[in-house]
Fold:
Amino acid sequence: MNNSNNNNRVRQFIVNLDDNPYHRWDHVAREYKDKIKDVERYIDQSLLSGGWLARGVLASVQGTLGVMAKLNLVAYAKELKGLSRELSIPLGKMVAMQLIYEASTCCTSMVIPDNQNNQVDISSSSLSSSSSSTSSPSSLVLARTMDWSMDCLKDITVEIDFHQSGASVMKATTWVGYVGVLTGIASQSKTAVSINYRRSDKGSFMDNIKNLISYKWPVGYLVRHVLSTATNYQAVAGTLELSGIVAPCFMTIATVDKGIVLARDPESVFRKSHVRDATNTQLEPNIQTSFNNKNKNNNCITTQSNYFVQTNNEEQNDNDNNFLYSNERRCLAKQQLAKWIETGEPVTDDSIWNLFSTFPIHNDDTIYGTIMNPTTYSIETRIPNTRFGFNLNNNNNNKNNKGMTSKY
Structure:
C-alpha cells in the first residue's frame, strides 16, 4: 500500500488475482470494516423509508441472491463470500449491495484529446512509483467524476491495483466491498472505461431483476471482466457493446488514439458517439439530425466530435432527464474543452482538476474524481474538499473556478 502525500488522494492497495478468492480482499476489508458499517446502515435506513412493499421485495431478492451466491451462480461469488465473512454482512445483502452501488451513479465523464503534443502530467497510481510523460499527438485522456447521494462512500473509496503473475493488469477506483469496476484502466489493452447512470424505459426495477436472474451482466462485473482479459481496445469496446447487461447505462471507453461512448440498453445500443477519427469519414456529424432519425426507425444513433462529455442524459439538452445538473455539467465541460482545443492551451492534470472543482461538476453529491491516461497506464483519484473541490490546497490557481457556492 502507498500513502500519497496528496491530502485528498485516496489510498491504494494491491489485490492479487493469484490469491485464493475467499481471502483476496481480506487486507482491504479489515481496514474498512467499521466505515462500511456506516454505508450498510445508510442503505438499511433508505430501505425503511421505502415502505413495507419495497422492504418485502428487497428481502426476497436478497434471499434469492444469497442462495445464488452460495451455489456460485453469480460472478465473483467466492470473493463476495470472503467479503461477507470479513465485513460481517449477510451474503445476500453483500450481493444486493453490489447492485445498489450501480443503481444511481450520476457522473461526468470526458474524453479529452491532446492534439498539440502538450504535456499531460498525470501522476501514476503504481504502488511503487509515480511518473509523468509527454503524450503523443492525438493521445486521449479519460477523466470522470462520480456523484452519489451517499456521502459516507467517500470514506471507503480506494484505488485497487490488480496484479496477476507478478504484474499489474488493471487499476480501478472503487468502494471497499464492491467487486465490480465502474472506473478502471487496463495495462494490456491500454484502455480506460467509466460507467454513468442512464434512465431508460427499458430499465425498470422489475426489468433489472429479471435481467439479473437471466444471467445478464451487472455492468461493473462486465467492465472488470473485459479489462482484465481483453488484449486490445477493439475487444474491450466490442464486448461492452454486445454483452447483455442488467440495467441501462452510459459506457465511456478510451484508448491512446480513439474513444467512444455507448448509450446502452440491456440488450442493445441506443447511441454510439465517437471521438473523431481522421480515418473514419462515415460517421454522422449532426447530433440533432441523428436524434430526429431515431424517431423514424430503430437504428442506432451514431455521432462524432473532437472530444466528448457524457453526463447522465443525452448529448442534446434533455430537460426531462436533467439529473443533478446533467445539462449544466455537460455545457460547462464542453465550453472549457472547446476553449482548450481552440487556443492550444496545454491540458494538464491541474487544469482538469480545476474544471472538476467548478460547480456544478463539483456538487454536494460528488464522491470522487479520477483521471486516467491510457498512454502511461496511470490513474489518479481524489476526494473533493467541500469548499475547494479537488485542488490540493486552498490556493486555487484557476481564477475562473467559482467553487460550489457559485452557479456561474
User: Anything to note?
Assistant: The longest helix spans residues 26-48. The chain has ten helices and 16 strands.
